[in-house]
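Quarterly update, task 2.4: heme C-bound model.
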Amino acid sequence: MTKKGPKGRWRVVAVVFVAVVLLLAAALALAPAWDRAEDLRQAVGASTGPAPDAEAIARGAYLARLGNCAGCHTPRGGAEWAGGRVIATPFGGVAAANLTPDPDTGIGRWSAEAFIRALREGRSADGRALVPACPYPNYSLLDERDLRDLYAYARSLPPVRQARSAHGLRWPFGTEFAIAAWRRLFFERATLAAAPLTSDDAALRRGAYLVGGLGHCSACHSTRNLFGANAGAFDLGGGAMPETGWLAPSLLDPRAAGAQSWSIGQTAALLRDGVNRHASVSGPMALVVAQSTQHLRPADAEAIAAFLHQLPVASDPAAVKRAPAPEPALRQLGERVFERHCADCHGKDGRGEPGAGPPLRGNRALALPTAANVVRMVLAGGFGPSTAAVPRPLGMPPFATLLGDEEVAAVVTWIRWKYGEASAGVRVHEVNRLR
Ligand code: HEC
Ligand code: HEC
Ligand code: HEC
């Protein structure tokens, strides 16, 4: 028996470490050759190909709204699709590309084929693999006609000369090797066959196509693994959005964000108006409605609603746990903060005040598995989206400077317990982290 002493063990560790470093270095050096695809840039001049017809451009404009391409590709206060915005991810920032037809900094040299490949396979025109911060794993579901219409729309925009900044991904996440490895492990082109459908109805299939593809609902409403990957375009079980502190609740659970127990009309209203009889959207979902779903044609909103309605129900067991009543001191502080700062708008009894604030009593936003959204709402406040039906939405002021962590924790714990089916509260340090 040769039992290794501590010295021997360290030697093994050192050898393994050196071997791993050498392997990684070799992989990093070889990766570009391993994961490069054909360069399609030479294929077109800026003005070759038939001029797209006005109808294709108009269709593309509508699809662009549904995909919310502008949400990332249009700089704040800048020219449409000129790029430059940096998208925060747990691995660092990723700069969105310039999609205007400028030949040097935009997609002026891109053929339709290059554009289609970008969204279906996640490759830039030069063959480089794209970081999935662009939700191409979802857009890969799109059919060729929709992709051509989006291309026609992009080509119709005024060219803007604007180079984008470099990505700010932390090493090694931005290396070609890491992106190639990620794609091998986790990227698969989305198909409608993977959609949970209870019938072959055309409207349902349209709804699934919009949810899994352009709507990219799973980009937020899913749990991501250590490498930022989810289980695909129809993974809708809910998950945390680490960059914003919000929880995108499960679309499979009617106690979270599920629409299974709502009518199709009410769900379509939430998507188009931002509010319905049961709920109002806030935070990142308010942006989704403002920038994207409010533009849905009625038939498309209903198709999405019909698809959401028939999703299989899967309750999150964490959401059904009842918490014990808060300690008397915590409860008193929570009640006091509520009466002073919240009751004017949400009602002394939590039943809401018309024209001021929505009811909190029985509001499922208070009974989510975590208190993250309520804390974010109290700290940062917010507005519902401005839509055709609700042009001037009500707003809630931010309390970040008015209330300390302890007071926020107390009031959130109190209203979660009182109005949110005795859901678990939040600790002071968790509030501090969400600030
Ligand atoms: C959540 C943010 C986000 C959304 C939404 C989004 N993109 Fe992107 N897109 C990005 C980022 C970030 C990149 C840069 C990726 C890279 O360089 O690896 C990118 C890259 C691209 C590229 C490659 C450009 C190039 O120069 O290589 C194309 C094409 C593209 N997006 C098209 C679209 C279209 C069309 C839509 C809407 C249907 C869309 N994107 C929606 C973030 C987004
Ligand atoms: C950018 C991230 C993001 C995307 C994309 C997104 N959601 Fe959401 N969604 C959220 C967050 C966060 C919430 C929780 C806040 C809220 O309830 O409004 C939410 C809430 C919801 C709710 C519950 C609303 C309520 O108040 O009960 C529904 C229904 C919903 N989303 C549907 C969708 C659908 C359908 C899509 C795709 C078309 C989608 N979401 C895309 C982040 C997102
Ligand atoms: C000036 C009126 C006003 C005050 C004061 C106010 N709120 Fe609100 N609150 C609103 C409005 C309006 C909304 C809906 C905004 C939205 O959807 O973005 C809202 C939304 C919320 C939500 C989310 C409900 C949902 O359906 O998603 C919670 C939770 C909440 N408020 C808690 C509080 C707490 C706790 C306080 C006190 C610390 C407070 N509010 C103070 C007006 C107010």
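Highlight for this quarter: Residues 6-34 form the longest helix (29 residues).
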